[in-house]
Amino acid sequence: LQMLERQVVGGEQAKNKDLKEKHKRRKKYADERRMQLVTALQQSNEDSSDWVLLNVYDSIQEEVRAKSKLLEKMQKKLRAAETEIKDLQSEFELEKIDYLSTIRRLERDLMLFQQLLDQVQSLVRRDCNYSNLEKIKRESVWDEEIGCWKIPEPVIQKTRLP
């Protein structure tokens, strides 16, 4: 019965010593290759979670400790990223408040200058080219090089009656 069992357990190739030797070599090569991969991963990136997955542990406690350390590292990275996000958001909020206050101030200044122009326009002589503000706006040109408007020179047109 034992003799029949030994013949059947390995199938047809149970007594083939070459095949057994080939299996041993493949297993040995696979174990060596796995160890090379593990050492390469440990050297290249010890923080990687893949290393924890490929590592073989002697006990569950070792595995728990290793994964706990990895979890702590990831939590530190997460906290650092969250604080950086909060800092960026607060910085953005401060800039936004500054821009809004600048816009409000410029709008008030614009309203002041518009009211001044409306008051002063009635005092400008009718024979001056500045009596028509719309025409002056159309003739004004923005100069990119010096960063200001070039407006036409004031001219008084004297009309003489014959």
Automatic annotation (TrEMBL):
Keywords: Coiled coil. Residues 9-28 are annotated as: Disordered. Residues 57-123 form a coiled coil. This is KIF17 protein. The gene is Kif17_0. It comes from Grus americana. It comes from the Eukaryota.
